[in-house]
Amino acid sequence: MNTRRQFLKAALAVSATYPLPLLAAGSSAKKIRIGMITDIHKDLVPDADERLKAFMAAMDQVKADAIMQLGDFCQPKPANRAFTDIFNAFTGPKYHVLGNHDMDGGFKREQTMVFWSMQARYYSFDLGGFHFIVLDGNDRPAGWKGGYPHYLADDQVAWLKEDLEKTKLSTFIFSHQSFERPMCIDNQEAVRAILEAAKTPDGRRKVAACFNGHWHIDHERVINGIPYIHVNSASYYYMGGNWKKGKADPELAKTFPLYAYNAGYKKPIFTMLEIDPAAGTFTMRGMKGEWDGPSPQELGYKSDEVENDWLKPSITEVKERIS
């Protein structure tokens, strides 16, 4: 088997399966496949283009119905146009989620939206008999004093509640920041209450799962019946300024000064959400990878925010089933 086939096979290994809580009447029996990639960080790593191309090749190979990037994609500057064009070359539906780093460099959220051809910063769509909601966790709360905002403003929260009330379909939620991690979305408990309250007329749970990027970890947590699933970064785990993995190439460091503080992945990591109406399940597929250099564990890295066993260059199998 050649290297390309090995890569594609690894990229599409099954990672997690959950029964859906609600299947809409008349849903198509056709499986729905949505490729997902997140936290490529075009502006922070030297090989982002190659990583995105590998994702696109894999999605073309499996004939994905749609693709989605979950944020920290690229800044809206002319030098990144060719990178964005790689994603936009997909012939099917393609969806963007705004990440906090996508406005780095002094760019405004609206500039990023125009650069990516986003029509709205939060929105929803139907595909194959299912409902999908994309949220923007970059709102500024009252009294915000700087730094990266992580909040859903009142208008977005009201829209989310109304959108969930309108749909009769099983719903998947996508955001960059998580609704389950401490120090993430400031009003995440209020948002989770809305997700948990969304029921079908016979009282079944309407929200099937929530997916996010941002943390660069491999982790899943179920809260009151709803799985909150972290999609790992396509590129690396950032350890911070006290954890330099080694001496970076001086020329590379000029353009990518934070690269030496990353625990990098040798090959890109991404996944695919596959929804099977006939079986009443959805599957998140996974991919195993390798560290490019010493791992955080080998360096003695410790974090107060994440568990060390969540730090890995892969998306691994989750065996828990949700009733």
UniProtKB/TrEMBL annotation:
Q: Which UniProt keywords apply?
A: Signal
Q: Which InterPro entries match?
A: Calcineurin-like_PHP, Metallo-depent_PP-like, STPP_CPPED1, TAT_signal
Recorded coiled-coil stretches: none
> What are the GO MF terms of this UniProt record?
hydrolase activity
Every Calcineurin-like phosphoesterase domain range: 32-217
- Give one Pfam family: Metallophos
Give the signal sequence positions. 1-24
According to UniProt, the name of this protein is Metallophosphoesterase
Species of origin reads Luteolibacter ambystomatis
